[in-house]
Amino acid sequence: MKVVNLKQAILQAWKERWSDYQWAINMKKLFPKGATWDILNLADALLEQAMIGPSPNPLILSYLKYAISSQMVSYSSVLTAVSKFDDFSRDLCVQALLDIMDMFCDRLSCHGKAEECIGLCRALLSALHWLLRCTAASAERLREGLEAGSPAAGEKQLAMCLQRLEKTLSSTKNRALLHIAKLEEASLHTSQGLGQGGTRANQPTASWTAIEHSLLKLGEILAGLSNPQLRSQAEQCGTLIRSIPTMLSVHTEQPHKTGFPTVHALVLLEGTMNLTGETQPLVEQLMMVKRMQHIPTPLFVLEIWKACFVGLIESPEGTGELKWTAFTFLKIPQVLVKLKKYCHGDRDFTEDVNSAFEYLLKLTPLLDKADQRCNCDCTNFLLQECGKQGLLSEANVDNLTAKRKADREHAPQQKSGENANIQPNPGLILRAEPTVTNILKTMDADHSKSPEGLLGVLGHMLSGKSLDLLLAAAAATGKLKSFARKFINLNEFTTYGSEENTKPASVRALLFDISFLMLCHVAQTYGSEVILSESRTGAEVPFFETWMQTCMPEEGKILNPDHPCFRPDSTKVESLVALLNNSSEMKLVQMKWHEACLSISAAILEILNAWENGVLAFESIQKITDNIKGKVCSLAVCAVAWLVAHVRMLGLDEREKSLQMIRQLAGPLHSENTLQFYNERVVIMSSILEHMCADVLQQTATQIKFPFTGVDTMPYWNLLPPKRPIKEVLMDIFAKVLEKGWVDSRSIHIFDTLLHMGGVYWFCNNLIKELLKETRKEHTLRAVELLYSIFCLDMQQVTLVLLGHILPGLLTDSSKWHSLMDPPGTALAKLAVWCALSSYSSHKGQASTRQKKRHREDIEDYISLFPLDDMQPSKLMRLLSSNEDDANVLSSPRSPLGSHVPVTHRVMVGEGVLGQQSCVWQTVSSGRSLLPTADRSMSSSLSASQLHTVNMRDPLNRVLANLFLLISSILGSRTAGPHTQFVQWFMEECVDCLEQGSRGSILQFMPFTTVSELVKVSAMSSPKVVLAITDLSLSLGRQVAAKAIAAL
């Protein structure tokens, strides 16, 4: 009935010719307060009456313009009313509507409820569709010459349409609102049938598909027009419309930088310490760095190659060099193949790789040095491998090879004959890779059928550096675990046999010995994790796994010499002692080698006691040790493993005999050896014993010569200078790295040792203090890039310390705020965001082998730091409340409406923040569809992570949630300072690093209420920032974003 009265009132005003202000006064008298003009559909009614004839009614239109200017009607209701008009043949009416849109289309705003702001988004989408249809109709009429003899008039209307379209779309704010409308429309399509609210159902929202169709139709029509200015204007509008869905994913790449130390250090770290790691985590980490630092693809690939060549040049001789060669020529091409799937730029990835090689060829000194080290043309090997993997076209490979060949003619020549007979490692590694596959197939065969043939294969593997070559190739191609599994099965198969003859017994002994030594070597070179199988319930654990876990000394592992594993059945021990002492050589027939290996520790204890008590002479000991190592070297390894654990427990004056025994076992054999491949096996045994004894020899200040090992088998051992505080060492090495601008392999090992020794908090805290001392901008940025790469040694734990301890300490202590000034404050914000993003993106994956070994004693328990008990306030919230001048600021945070929501009791809990509004979250967690809107009393801590039901028992999630609570409280407080500025930098960096559609990013932990506080900061009050920081996959997130943008 009200609508009829409204029409009557409009007609009465027209008949009596009321002026616009008289009309407004009388309307307010005629209609009671309470119902708004939008609910009465005033804009719709006015337009309906104004557009009855062939030309618009100017008086009624003046009423509408007055209503818009005086804000009687909302912009959304006017846009919705305009978009209902579809008779585009009435030129004057269309022009009048375009004039009305011109009044406000570039300054839309809404300060009402969140639902009204979403309504504005939908109305703007409908208006955009209407404008496109109107433009297409005008262009069609112009093209067909319907207005014969007056083409100028047709052009005028088309120009008006395009002008309004351009004016609407040129506003970033409008495009942001359209972006939200598109997502809202997509969400409505997916949730049809769930029953939508009244206002949603009543608004005829255009679909994005319809807009795309209209845009295509317009393009087809305009293609036939001769006016280039109109065509250009239309193309510009089309580009702006197409950019709306992806308006957050456009990042400018850094063209001015050519060196990226983070990528360099990451590749060096992976090649030096994690050759066996899977390629996928490395690819994801590299892509994360590329995105965060906006590195162009060619320079990104170039930096990877540069790091590989530097690694090759720096790598220590022996196993280290082979590892680096395998990493460069086998693993990195595989990494690039996976990177190809991630890089979607304007150019083809092969072109980017080609450009990277073009740049690389200009670094002639680096390539010459690598060629000299490897005794070959490294670039040629690399190009051939990239060609095989499809990373370079054949033409590009030929072109680059020719360029490098021409450069090499001018390279400094090596002396004739020098290294002439040495085969280059890259060629050997590339040939070793298919050999690994063949050996794995051979190992799959039935061992009982042809043990002699298998022994021949294994014996060939032991010669020279074949074993290390094969292991490096297997490690780089992800086959080492499979390789180790095959040898564990072989070792298990050969532990005992029922043969009666000497020959099969000796073959079995050799197979057991070689497999045992190989497995020990693999465990020491690549980490024991490679050997261990996944836990299987009920399955029997193989002998070697059991021995390695309980008896084998490793870095950081302390063994108990009195452990039951070293105390087997006494009868077996007695028979073994008798065998070692009385026989001229070790018996082989029907020998149970696993029992001998487990019994040797107790046997050695008996022999030691006899020697110390004078029962045995030194000559007898020599004979016994010769017996132990004379046939099967594994027994000597097991004996030394126990002796190392035993020596640790002895006093200074008690160690002599035990160390002498180790010397005898490690020294040369005094009798003749009778089994095959003895010399090859002794070389591996010496290397194993040297690694086993390294810790204990350092602690006891003893020297033992291992005669068969190479010159430098343990290159990164004992790096820290003696009698110098580790803090000084840390400061010194970081200063050197900062001065150089990049991290080398040796520095990586020193940092790793310091991290292991000092603990994560000590390590991170001291390095952050060094960062905050820097006062030059270029130095702080370089420090951030280097620190991030250093923190990759144990990124998860460093991030927990940085975000959970160090940052809250700096932000809540006013005496430390001065250290957060620019530039160190900006740099710390950047570092914190990089660490948070990296850890969050990878923390669901497996920790790398180097991180699993780290001790965790110095990390405070995050459950107690941020408790789940809802009666105990978290430590962070106590810090905040004690530091805040006005306690009410914390207990009364602002809702998105700006009104204070009283909260009597709030603490961080596992699934949200419980307070007076805890029912909001509890309804969500119970699975009901009722979600809080941005205008109801929302808990000041409700965040997207809670609506996504993220597990808050995870320490990283807990730390992130509390950090964003702290940020929210700083933004809402009345005290501004460097800490407020730091929060701004932190949020800016989050926006800069994140991609569009990054649901599940760290910003999901930010309370929704923070958005309204954040836009009050001038640097953050932009539509793109609001879109970037809110989770637009959630209805509540879209409402919060629409409300914040509409109010800008």
TrEMBL record:
CC terms in the record's Gene Ontology section: mediator complex
Residue ranges, compositional bias (Polar residues): 413-424
GO molecular function: transcription coregulator activity
A GO biological process held by the record: positive regulation of transcription initiation by RNA polymerase II
Record localization: Nucleus
InterPro entries referenced in this protein's UniProt entry, alphabetically: Mediator_Med24
Annotated spans, Disordered: 402-426
Keywords: Activator, Nucleus, Transcription, Transcription regulation
Family of this protein: Belongs to the Mediator complex subunit 24 family.
Protein name stated in the entry: Mediator of RNA polymerase II transcription subunit 24
Taxonomic classification: Eukaryota, Metazoa, Chordata, Craniata, Vertebrata
Record carries keyword Nucleus: yes
Primary residence: nucleus
Superkingdom classification of source: Eukaryota
